[in-house]
Write a structure and sequence with these properties.
Chain A: Keywords: Acyltransferase, Cell inner membrane, Cell membrane, Membrane, Transferase, Transmembrane, Transmembrane helix. Chain A: GO terms for molecular function: acyltransferase activity. Chain A: This is Lipid A biosynthesis acyltransferase. The complex is a heterodimer of chains A (311) and B (93). Chain A is an alpha/beta fold and 311 residues long. Chain A has 12 helices and 9 strands. In chain A, the strands form 2 sheets. Chain A has a 7-stranded mixed sheet with strand order 1-9-8-2-5-3-4. A two-stranded antiparallel sheet of chain A has the order 6-7. In chain A, helix 3 crosses helix 5, helix 4 crosses helix 5 and helix 10 packs across helix 11. Chain A starts with a helix and ends in a 6-residue tail after the last helix. Chain B has one domain: Non-ribosomal Peptide Synthetase Peptidyl Carrier Protein, Chain A (Orthogonal Bundle), CATH 1.10.1200. The N and C termini of chain B lie far apart (32 Å). Classes of the chains: A alpha/beta (311), B mainly alpha (93).
């Protein structure tokens, strides 16, 4: 569902995307951010499903009825973070500043060359993790993602950083390859980032409490962690406005393990614990969470009373 | 149903044990039916199961299933293909 949306969005906004990428490169981030307002205004009008999803989320996280300005700010934040991916990946001449918090928690793993899983999310920018590896040659972070859904953007990023594709474990290849590649990377002592707040079609999920509603969270990140027994970290790259990002890292578990028969319930407990941490960060930085599709099973209570739509 | 060879019977048992399969016994796994995917005769396993199988096969037979192996989808296709791969690797070792 999420992927279908991304694909649709990607097709219809191709022109906008190329224009912004061109401006970002030629005229700089300031000009590109100004231009983003055009894109966001267009998006507000042309993508009602995404707008409704934004409103549903904001209603929960702000605990009040969102105004147009809130939705605008939400989508503008998304657009900025999307744009900044280019600068994060581009590296050297990045105009951005990333302040890292809790990075010491990684140090043990790096020093022992022990592989670890990092649960990342659609909150802010997971690319902020590059602030870590950029400074250390011995730290490799690979991200599990579907190469095909972001093909346009990936092509641009690949030009900026020739090693970009190498840092991605493509989930659009076969199931076996994906999980075996994760294992191989961990065995080499690398870090592997997994999006833990969006599931793909056919994936096992658990309905978790999240921001006052019930929403399906993927179980496979936790099943994988339990099977591999490696340490698990959380990372959130929160956009704070202007040029600034805060990267928060937490050790979540020194290594999950459980009796085989209990794996589904135990994985579920971790999925819920994760949903709680994610909710905490979302409340701190409400405009930073970017899942623009119907994430919850039911719309927020206020929306329901209003007949499911406030348009 | 195709008859299981001795090795296929062992591997089927390994699948049932390592994956905790509840609605199928080792003897009931059709050697030529797909292990993964939505087909009606498929065992319906997913990517997490794939890793579990890879780890179990590694433990039981000392065979490493590698990520870059182009043949993985063929190897993991059915009980028969997986068993044949194990047989080959054991012979080569």
């Amino acid at each position: 569902m999420a992927e279908a949306w991304t694909e649709r969005g990607e097709r219809s906004h191709r022109f906008m995307f190329h224009m912004i990428a061109w401006v970002a490169k030629r005229l700089g981030r300031g000009a590109a951010r100004a231009l983003l307002h055009l894109g966001v205004a267009y998006f507000m009008l042309a993508a009602p499903a995404a707008r409704r999803a934004s409103q549903d989320y904001l209603r929960r996280v702000l605990d009040r009825r969102p105004r147009w300005a809130d939705t605008y700010r939400h989508i503008y934040t998304f657009a900025t973070v999307f744009l900044d991916r280019m600068y994060m990946v581009g590296g050297a001449e990045s105009p951005l500043s990333v302040t890292s918090h809790g990075v010491q928690s990684f140090r043990d793993c790096i020093d022992r060359e022990q592989g670890a899983l990092i649960m990342v999310s659609h909150l802010g920018s997971f690319e902020a993790l590059r602030a870590l590896s950029g400074r250390r040659d011995d730290l490799t972070v690979r991200i599990l993602m579907n190469w095909a859904t972001g093909a346009k953007m990936n092509a641009v990023l690949q030009k900026l950083d020739p090693s970009f594709a190498d840092r991605v474990i493509d989930t659009s290849t076969s199931d076996f390859d994906r999980v075996l590649k994760v294992k191989a990377a961990l065995d080499r002592g690398e870090m592997v980032g997994i999006m833990a707040d969006r599931h793909h079609a056919g994936e096992r999920t658990l309905d978790c409490d999240f921001l006052g509603g019930t929403a399906p969270f993927p179980l496979s990140p936790w099943l994988l962690a339990g099977m591999l027994g490696v340490p698990v970290f959380l990372a959130f790259g929160v956009y704070r406005g202007d040029r600034h990002y805060d990267l928060y890292c937490e050790r979540f578990s020194p290594g999950l393990s459980w009796p085989r028969g209990e794996r589904m319930t135990r994985a579920g407990t971790w999925a819920q614990a994760y949903a709680d941490r994610l909710a905490e960060y979302a409340r701190q930085a409400p405009y930073n969470w970017f899942n623009f599709y119907q994430f919850w099973h039911e719309p927020a209570a206020d929306e329901r009373r209003a007949g499911g739509s406030s348009e | 149903m195709n008859e299981q060879s001795d090795l296929e019977r062992d591997v089927a048992q390994l699948l049932v044990t390592s994956l905790d399969l509840e609605d199928v016994t080792a003897a009931e796994i059709e050697p030529t039916a797909p292990l993964f995917g939505p087909e009606a005769d498929s065992l319906g396993l997913d990517s997490i199961d794939a890793l579990e199988i890879a780890l179990a096969v590694n433990q039981a037979y000392g065979i490493e299933l590698r990520a870059d192996d182009e043949a993985n989808s063929r190897i993991f296709a059915t009980l028969r293909s997986l068993s044949a791969h194990i047989e080959r690797e054991r012979a080569a070792a």
